[in-house]
Amino acid sequence: MTNADVVLTVRDVKAGYVDENVLHGVSIDVPRGEVVAVIGPNGAGKSTLLKTIYGLLRPRGGSVQFTDKRGVTHNLVGLRPHAITHLGINFVPPLSNIFADLSVRENLEVGAFAHRGRFDALLEPVPQTFPRLTEMMSKRAATLSGGQRQMLGIARALISEPELLVLDEPAAGVAALRLRQEAQTQVHTEV
Predict the structure, then answer these.
(1) Do residues 133 and 104 touch, judged by C-beta distance below 8 A?
(2) Domain 89-191 has what CATH class?
(3) Is 150 in contact with 97 (CB distance < 8 Å)?
(4) Residue boundaries of the structural domains of the chain
(5) What dotted CATH number matches 1-87?
(6) Which residues contact 116 (CB under 8 A, 6 or more apart)?
(7) What is the three-class DSSP state of 94?
């Protein structure tokens, strides 16, 4: 695999909270165009790794590099989340990932902020990907269920057209039955 084939390279990352490391030399490559899952038991450091990648937590050692679609490699260590988003990475935390006092549409507008003037074009795929959100555009986000909030958080992250989307527990707050129903609906509409 060449450097152009890898969008994210994490090498020997050490990170944690207060005086204790949670990550002790973690390394991972994320190939361009691939889906990569980090799995493990609660407390293993999955969320810590994702927060470190996105600049919410500064590593105590190691490196985090992002190679954009032009082939330019950026060192993410020390960058703030807004700068990382600007480079082409977006992050969806497991909970509390929406602006509760804003409407669904306003939340999506926040996601498209860096693409001023293109909001309507960026909004076009939302009804196909998240049909339930389309019905709720004027609703206050605080009135949404946990699963609907999670959909909105993911939609807001996707509307910025990231090159890399980092999801921390993307099914948090989504009922298993609802996931099954949504999957069946997608299968039936795509056949």
Answers:
(1) yes
(2) alpha beta
(3) yes
(4) 1-87, 89-191
(5) 3.40.50.300
(6) none
(7) coil
Residue with the two structure tokens 């020390």 = 78
Q: What is the pLDDT of residue 191?
A: 47
In angstroms, what CA-CA distances link 135 with 99, 100, 111, 149, 156? 18, 17, 19, 14, 16
CB atoms within 10 A of CB 14: 15
Run means of pLDDT, 10 residues per run, the chain, 191 residues: 80 96 96 93 94 96 97 96 93 87 91 75 83 91 91 90 92 60 56 47
How far apart are alpha carbons 60 and 74 in whole angstroms? 18
Tell me if the pTM is above 0.85.
no
Please check whether residue 62 is in contact with residue 14, taking contact to mean a CB–CB distance below 8 angstroms: yes
Query: Which pLDDT score, from 0 to 100, does residue 124 have?
Result: 81
